[in-house]
Design a protein that fits this description.
It is built from nine helices and two strands; from the N terminus they run H-H-H-E-E-H-H-H-H-H-H. It is mostly helical.
């Protein structure tokens, strides 16, 4: 053992002896006990302080909880009050809505009654207009626009005779072939069987001449063009599709411009009432075409307004006036009398002028198919 180890052990021995002496005398124990009591007192004070803090925090928490409870009660009371106010306002609004619905229903009933009275009055007015037009036309009839001779005119006008006297007798002159009725292109031709006398007498032989006579009549035929289209269904989109119908095919049953023009001619130019026009059209078609009075009124208004659709153009009115004058002039002539060549030349000149004016006015905006057919005259 070296000198360093010996010194170390001797130091450790002295320290152990000193510790044993302190423990045997109780001095170290008293020192440790005092130190423990000091620490215990310190920790007891700290525990008391924490308890006081916890009690203060609990009291503060209780106080805050009571405050929040009061606030929540106040908010709930305020909410309940507002909810009651909203319920009362909703009840008032429901009462106002019911009252407004009742007023609306009453107003609709009054409006329907007013519409019914309006349509009745309009129909009566239309009837009276038709009667007035008929009576006016009867009053305005004279030798110029009807077959009444000029001698029976209530306001006779002096007719100047510009023909020079030739000394010849009135009527057909020698060598004149005479005026015959114009033969028409036959739509059907039938050959009559030979008479019984020809069959019984063998001396009769076929000649080179053929004797023919015509019976001319007019026929009004109901033409119904029906367009059908297949319907296609898409189950994913719940959608139906079909081909687009041409222009004019709007409702299930539509009337073209020919029916409108026919009714307009009867009601305005011929002064036939709407009821008689309906009956006449029904009789001509064997009862198949029976249009209501309201529909006739609508068709007549649509056709009558056609000239007003082009108020800036003047050719249609000139052409309409010219055609009426030509019809009146032709109706005033006897069947066996030819029209005056000068008068016809004047009509043709005015017709060419109206057509030229139409071409000029339509140069910027071409007319539609409806006007191309002449239904705006």
């Amino acid at each position: 053992m070296d000198h360093c180890d010996y010194n170390t052990l001797e130091c450790r021995l002295k320290a152990a002896k000193k510790r044993i002496s302190e423990l045997e005398s109780g001095e170290k124990y008293r020192e440790l006990q005092a130190l423990r009591q000091k620490d215990a007192a310190y920790y007891n004070r700290a525990i008391k302080d924490e308890k006081r803090k916890a009690e203060a925090a609990h009291a503060e928490t209780k106080r805050v909880r009571e405050i929040w409870s009061g606030i929540v009660d106040d908010l709930d009371a305020e909410y309940q009050e507002k909810l009651a106010d909203a319920a009362r306002a909703l009840e008032k609004m429901e009462e106002r809505a019911l009252r407004a619905e009742r007023q609306r229903d009453e107003a609709l009933e009054k409006l329907m009654e007013a519409h019914r009275k309006y349509y009745e009055t309009a129909s009566e007015l239309e009837e009276e207009k038709g009667k007035n037009q008929k009576l006016q036309a009867q009053l305005n009839r004279d030798f110029e626009n009807s077959s009444i001779p000029s001698s029976k005119s209530r306001k006779p006008k002096k007719i100047t005779n510009s023909r020079e006297k030739t000394g010849r007798k009135p009527g057909a002159q020698p060598g004149h072939e005479g005026h015959h009725r114009k033969r028409q292109e036959p739509t059907s031709s039938h050959k009559l069987p030979p008479p019984q006398e020809v069959l019984d007498d063998p001396d009769f032989r076929p000649a080179s001449k053929i004797k023919s006579k015509q019976m001319v009549s007019i026929e009004l035929r109901l033409v119904v063009n029906e367009l059908t289209a297949d319907t296609y269904y898409n189950p994913k989109t719940n959608e139906y599709l079909w081909a687009k119908f041409p222009e004019g095919y709007v409702n299930e049953v539509n009337y073209d411009a020919s029916i409108r023009a026919f009714l307009y001619l009867l009601n305005n130019d011929c002064n036939v009432s709407i009821d008689k026009s309906r009956k006449f059209l029904s009789d001509l078609t064997g009862g198949k075409l029976n249009i209501s009075k309201g529909m006739v009124n609508s068709l007549l208004k649509e056709f009558a307004d056609s000239m007003d659709n082009e108020p800036e153009l003047t050719w249609s009115r000139e052409m309409h006036s010219l055609i009426q004058e030509m019809i009146h002039y032709r109706n005033s002539l006897p069947d066996d009398e030819e029209p005056d060549s000068d008068k016809v030349a004047d009509f043709e000149k005015r017709y060419d002028e109206a057509v030229a004016k139409a071409c000029e006015e339509y140069s910027d905006s071409p007319p539609s198919d409806y006007y191309k057919e002449g239904y705006n005259l």
